[in-house]
Amino acid sequence: MQGLMNWLGKSLVPIASKIGSIPWLVALRDGFISTMPITMAGSLATLINALLVTFPTEWKWMGFVNSGFVQGVVAIDGIVSTGSLSIFAVFFAAMWGYHLAKNYNVDGLSGSLVSLAALLMSTNNTTTLALADKLPKAAVKAFTNAGATASESSITLNSAFSVGNLGSSALFSAMIFGAIAVVVYIFLMKKDITIKMPDTVPPAVSKAFTALIPGIAALYVVAIINWAFTKGTGQFFGDWLSETIQAPLLHAGQSAGMVLLVALLVQVFWFFGIHGPNVLAPVLESIWGTSQLANITAFEKHAALPYKWVRGSFDAYAWFGGSGGTIVLLLAILIFSKRADEQAVAKLAFAPGIFNINEPVMFGLPIVLNAIYFAPFIIAPVLNTAIAYFVTMAGWVGPVKVAVPWITPPVLNAFMATLDWRAAVLALVNMVIAFFIWVPFVQMSNRVAAKEQAAA
Amino acid sequence: MIFLNAPIMQDKIIEFVNGYTENGLTFKLKSQKGMKLVFETNAEDLEAAAKLVKNAIHAQSWGAVLYFQAGVEK
Hints:
heterodimer, A: 3 domains, B: 74 residues
């Protein structure tokens, strides 16, 4: 065991800490994290609508559902959702550009604007309405005269961004074109290819002029790439990226291998004192975070959920009480441990553990670098993930469709995220399984302590 | 005194914290045992000092991914 720990510590940890300090990946992680108020606002609106409409409709409380109060709340939630989750890529693009520029010591606000503009340039800016009924010739002519592209079966509005094109499906466009634009911007800023204003000019004006040449150049580079692509293929680059790169990658994220690998790596990193979800955030958020957004958006539109395993699934089924499922370790200690030091830590760490904060137990017990607890700390969450994955894929519980704050207590988290009582049962079953995985190691820890005491 | 429970990159953390000064606060390594690093400080509000040091380490490019505990040494 010690040999394995040493090997992992020497081989994996340096790689993880290198990855975690790459400015690009740090910016990607921080870009996603910065959008949390937007995600949570949109999710809250979805959750409220589900509680006020979806469930009461199932229970046939139509008088309640159709009441003025409920309809008013639904209307307000619709406004919140349209201005937040539905156009999530816009907010992400701004934050991604901001953090990327800032990590290279360049003005973050300008980087944010350049990134946002790059996303809009690569996004399909036409909205097509497919018509069920044949449009009369006079109507076709009227729409054409008004600037639309109309036929008997469809109307295409030009220069009209569809909200649907700026949601989770545009995230990879935001990442790629934001990166291209901000890199050009950073490069020119670093090369000092800027307009310099005299000292007498106010700083805000001077800053704007400094960003002028790099900003224009960055946007022209993105525009030329998009123009050439559309010219060559007849398709918007953003649409192509969404269909050819993003969709297959997100579907790859539904594979058991990828899900379990991430669950394993997060645990190994935590064990060695590296913030696992932080290091893996670029992957976790790009793949499973994006899938979760797609699920939330679909749920809000009463459409079929496109993905079964998403970012919140890890929190709901494997990371209860914090990574490692440590809340059940605390229970195991409180019931089985005779060690006063472990009992003291468990009592102290239990309250924060309910809210998934496990720093006191990770360092107090400790679990970090503790050979006795290495095996259960790795095995329990990976096994829990595997069980939840197969149960979810089999359709026995509904997928996560609401973003829930990570401090939401276990079991409640699973229910709120899925709005499915079976998910709460699954979380509970996983906790029981994890509990029985931890128990023998708690007893082993007692035996080792007793031996050490006897030897002393 | 404040403590940091840091399982990895201890040398880097010690070097950083020993040389870290903010608002006249200073820190000096007092002891190192296992993953526990104890620092002497002239700070009056030790809780705030521990938090300050933790945030300062996390703000470093090499420290952003570290998982460690900071607190007041009693």
